[in-house]
Amino acid sequence: MTNRRHLLHAAGALALAAAALPAAAQAPASGTFPTKPIRIIVPYAPGGTTDIVGRRMGQRMSELLGQPVVVENRSGANTAIGAEAVAKAPADGYTLLFTNDATFVANPVLYPKLPYDVQRDFTPVAPVTYVALALVVNANAPAKDMKELAALLKTRKDLSYGSFGAGSQPHLMGEMLKTLTGSDMVHVPYKGAGPAVTDVLGGQILLTFPAFPTIQGHVSSGKLRVLAVSGDKRVPLVPDVPTFTEAGFKEMDMGAWYGFLAPAGTPADVVAKLNATVNTILADREFVEKNMTSQGMVPMTSTPQQMAALMRSELQRTADYVKKSGAKVE
Predict the structure, then answer these.
(1) Range of the domain at 147
(2) CB 278 within 8 A of CB 260
(3) What is the pLDDT of residue 22?
(4) What is the pTM assigned to this prediction?
(5) Contact, 304 vs 125, CB < 8 A?
(6) CA 106, CA 169: separation in Å to the nearest integer?
(7) Could you say which of 212, 229, 252 is where a domain stops?
(8) Would you give the distance in Å from CA 264 to the centre of its chain?
(9) Residue 209 near residue 131, CB atoms below 8 Å
(10) Are residues 161 and 120 part of one domain?
(11) What digits encode the pLDDT tens for the residues 140-183?
């Protein structure tokens, strides 16, 4: 959970490192795995970016591995319910967690007690993508840009914003927005991006911070208005929308990155085969263009060891952001 420039630098370094690996290190592991269906647990409600990307990756994994890949949504507790289910699953590679960095970066910072321990209970498999986040309001909202939004928040005391759970990226961004504008918005946590976007469309809340795969259709149809996006470059889908930095809110520049983890103790050759499969998918230019880059996502490839190092470095970075934003979990 960090700014796009940092993560894009990390993504590029990981991709180059993976490309430099010997061919044998990237080739599928030997053995019979998998011999039965693989289950991917997504710890969010259906319809959000994590769910969308997880299902697209699962379909391609099924094709490459020759076994069905089933996606199961287990939302709640800011991903802790789904994460705990994977942590307690057999360490055989047949149960995977596909989630964003809230699970293994934000939660350990914000929650003193979790039903899982990131370092103890999981084996990193592979990162998949970095996604820019956007601040969106209903198309009928009185704010047409960030300046008007700031003025609105200072004069209205009955407004609220939605997140994908306490401790999620939108929660931290919302608290930072409150700090920067001196406002008193109420935080409304949801179980995923889809429900939060639905309530923005319905007028129950003023704004939320989804990724573009969640809102592309609503933006194109004119139902949602995008006021700003994270990252150091504008999103092609909305070229007239400034980045948070351009709009004068650089402190809100936060994106999300997504990846696969397996239960701790999963055999190294199984992890290697899963990692190679993910990296093979991300090397498919047609797949990446259709499902990622055209929607503002940037693929990230690496070894499991590099993913583990990235997770460790992001823990401290997220701790710093939480301190600045004043975000707390009740």
Answers:
(1) 134-252
(2) yes
(3) 37
(4) 0.76
(5) yes
(6) 8
(7) 252
(8) 22
(9) no
(10) no
(11) 999 999 999 999 999 998 999 999 887 788 998 999 999 999 99
